[in-house]
Structures are given as structure tokens and as C-alpha cells.
Amino acid sequence: MRKSFRIVSTALSALALIGTIGFSATAIAGDKKAENVGKKLAFNKKKGNCLACHVIAGGAQPGNIAPPLVGMKGRFPDKAVLRAQISDPRAANPDSMMPPFSAHGILTEKEIDAVVDFIYSL
């Protein structure tokens, strides 16, 4: 009886571990996909167009009128603050030259989330 319990217990533990590893790999792949979508939006001249003002690694012909987008996790430890800045920068600085992407309908909420994921990864 004890031997059967040990076998079942070990098997269940192994299945739980395999499930966790599989879920982690899927979550990582999902994060990378969101970052790729965000990068495309950020570099798209008809959508985010972040390169018009910011230097971003991998971007061609970046602007220089805004800060370079590097070390974003250090600059914005709270990802929600970064999202608010991208969504409507006028809340933090009414004189901001950065367009309010949400208020002006430039990006949807889902697109803003994708851009935030990308920018936060820099």
C-alpha cells in the first residue's frame, strides 16, 4: 500500500512539474509575441511612431527631441506609470509634446498594452 502511494505521489508531482514548465514556456512565448507586436506598433509611422522622437535600439533614423528609450524598468519601476505616460502624457505634464495616444484614438487600449510591453522590455 505504501509503495503504491509513493508511486502515485511521485507521478502526480512529476505531472505538476511538467505542467508548470509547459505553462512557463507558453507565458514566455506570449510575452515575446506581445513585445514583437508592440515593436511593430512603436516603429510604425501611422501608429506609435515612437522613432520620430526617441532613439530605440534597432530603430532606423530615430529622432532626438525626446529621451532615448533605454533602461525603462529602472526609469519606470511601476509599469502602470509607464502605461499612463504613453496613454496620455498630459496627465503628468500638461505641456508635453508627446501625443496622447489613447485620448486621440491613435492607438487602441490593446495596442497601448502591446507598446508598453515592448517599451518596458528595453
Structure description:
The longest helix has 42 residues, at 2-43. The chain has one domain (35-120): Orthogonal Bundle (Cytochrome Bc1 Complex, Chain D, domain 2), CATH 1.10.760.10. Residues 20-29 have low confidence and may be disordered. It has helices at 2-43, 72-75, 79-87, 109-120. It contains four helices and no strands. With 122 residues, it is mainly α. α3 (79-87) packs across α4.
Please describe the structure with a list of short key phrases separated by commas or semicolons.
single chain; 4 helices; Cytochrome Bc1 Complex, Chain D, domain 2; 122 residues; mainly alpha; 55% helix
What is the CATH architecture annotation? Orthogonal Bundle
Structural class: mainly alpha
Q: How many β-strand runs?
A: 0
How far is it from the N-terminal to the C-terminal residue, by CA?
Answer: 55 Å
Uncertain residue ranges: 20-29
* Sheet having the most strands: none
Nearest-integer average pLDDT? 80
Q: What is the count of distinct domains?
A: 1
What is the string of SSEs from the N terminus onward?
HHHH
> What is the level 1 CATH name?
Mainly Alpha
Estimate the strand proportion: under 5%
Name of the CATH superfamily: Cytochrome c-like domain
CATH third-tier fold name? Cytochrome Bc1 Complex, Chain D, domain 2
Specify the overall morphology: globular
Helical residues, percent: 40-55%
Question: So how many helices?
Answer: 4
Q: In angstroms, what is the radius of gyration?
A: 21 Å
